[in-house]
Amino acid sequence: MYSRIMVPLDGSPLAGQALPLAKMLAARCRAKVVLFQALAPISDARHAEALRSQAHVYLEEVRKDFAAAGIEAETELRVGAPATAILEFAESTGVDLMVMATHGRSGALRWIYGSVADKVLHSTRVPVLLIRVSEQPRPVEPITRIVVPLDGSALAEKALDPARQLAAAFDAEVVLLVVWQIPAIGFENVPISVLDEWEEAARADAERYVADVKNRLQAQGIRVQAKTQCGGAAESILETAESANAHLIVMSSHGRSGISRWVLGSVADRVLRSSAIPVLLIRLTQSAA
């Protein structure tokens, strides 16, 4: 389970929307929290010192709020390119989870959006829990249901252990989802009867696979639902999360290398951009599979 949680901040209320979930996770996991802020270097020494002072005050206020909830927290203020500073700190100090805000389709933070978040997501080996911010944020609710998309690959299954640990910590149910598809392009001349056979075989394979994973998790004391669905991967993940009233999606992605059937690049990106609930992204390389 997570023991050192890093929360990158920029002093804005929108970035601060990551804090309630980080606090809840830290309490359940009995983890220490690092409240981190990076200030881009500027040449005006007086202005730079004012910004550092302002950041120190902000981080200390947040630290005191965590301490009042019984959570051990420390502050870290660095000067440098924000994405680089976040990555270097996370990789060098034993951080095992990052919790950070992201904008989804709209909104604007000072730095946490756009290129900074993108660089962090595509470069770090540390799991990242992303919260899509809103002008009217919803209250943080205890995690009672976790969706885990699978595609049959070893890379996708790397999401299972984090999901299992979180399910145990929150006494939550895991919803396993396997999405299967029949290619529509290039098979126009294939008889319908053959396509029906392929569809039935794909459905049966998905059901056998998800039932096996369900049994593995249940043997570890986790409550599990197993679902299969035909359709687009990202759309099916989002639909399942909504219909299941889930509080979290846990999924794997490839990082810089590695191959799974669909839990890569565009699917993870589309889920991150569109999900109304937090997404825990486990980025892996092929060597980790």
Write the layout of secondary structure elements.
Elements: E1 4-9, H1 19-29, E2 32-39, H2 45-68, E3 73-79, H3 82-92, E4 97-102, H4 115-123, E5 128-132, E6 145-150, H5 154-157, H6 160-170, E7 173-180, H7 192-218, E8 224-230, H8 233-243, E9 248-253, H9 265-274, E10 279-283
Parallel strand pairs: 1-2, 1-4, 2-3, 4-5, 6-7, 6-9, 7-8, 9-10
Antiparallel strand pairs: 5-10
Helix pairs in contact: 3-4, 8-9
3D structure, described in words:
This protein has 289 residues and is an alpha/beta fold. It folds into two domains: 4-132, Rossmann fold (3-Layer(aba) Sandwich); 145-288, HUPs (Rossmann fold, 3-Layer(aba) Sandwich). It contains nine helices and ten strands. The protein has helices at residues 19-29, 45-68, 82-92, 115-123, 154-157, 160-170, 192-218, 233-243, 265-274, and strands at residues 4-9, 32-39, 73-79, 97-102, 128-132, 145-150, 173-180, 224-230, 248-253, 279-283. A ten-stranded mixed beta sheet has the order 3-2-1-4-5-10-9-6-7-8, with helices on both faces. Helix 7 links the parallel strand 7 and strand 8. Helix 8 (233-243) packs parallel to helix 9 (265-274). It is elongated, with a radius of gyration of 21 Å. 41% of the residues are buried.
> Which stretches of 5+ consecutive residues score pLDDT under 50?
104-113, 255-264
Summed up, the helix count is 9
Strand fraction band?
15-25%
Give the overall shape: elongated
Radius of gyration: 21 Å
